[in-house]
Write a structure and sequence with these properties.
alpha+beta, 5-stranded antiparallel sheet
Length: 173
């Protein structure tokens, strides 16, 4: 009987040692909180940069679409910009521009805090980029920005396609 009680008491001691102490848990939580506090400022801009990249890719897709449709249909297309967003329009038979009534003609809203500003090749602000039936387009740049970071969707000459750059260094202005 003495042997059985010894086995039970050693099992009880082993069970008591198998968990973490409160002090160990508090120390791990302090380490995790410190790591998050150090990395949080770097993660803050991640979402905004991701949104800027999405806007730049959408604008690029719309410029490619407008160029292809203008050449294919033999009429002028525009990618229009305003304070809240951007959309595609096309010239109708009367010479007026109408917003497209398809998926590409929807108004794409700018995310909160993101701004898009069109500057023409002559340095003047603009409201639209025009794409002609002969394949030419207005040269210029669309600056997509959030606080101190920016991306550019750029076309350096009427015969070139638009492309995304992170800086205007090396791009003819």
């Amino acid at each position: 009987m003495n042997l059985v009680s010894r086995n039970n008491s050693s099992k009880t001691r082993a069970r008591g040692r198998s968990g973490f102490t409160l002090l160990e848990l508090v120390l791990v939580m302090i380490l995790i909180c410190t790591a998050l506090a150090i990395s949080a400022p770097d993660l803050r801009g991640f979402s905004a940069n991701s949104k800027m990249k999405n806007v730049a890719q959408q604008v690029l897709a719309l410029t490619n679409y407008a160029r292809a449709e203008a050449a294919g249909e033999g009429r002028t297309y525009r990618v229009n910009f305003d304070q809240t967003g951007y959309y595609v329009s096309a010239e109708d038979d009367s010479g007026q521009f109408q917003q497209l009534q398809n998926e590409m003609g929807q108004t794409f809203q700018l995310p909160d805090g993101i701004q898009a500003q069109l500057t023409r090749s002559d340095g003047q602000p603009g409201e639209y980029i025009e794409f002609h039936a002969d394949g030419r387009a207005d040269a210029g740049q669309v600056k997509i920005s959030h606080e101190d970071s920016q991306l550019y969707v750029v076309c350096e000459s009427p015969a070139e396609r638009f492309h995304v750059v992170s800086t205007l260094a090396g791009v003819a202005q």
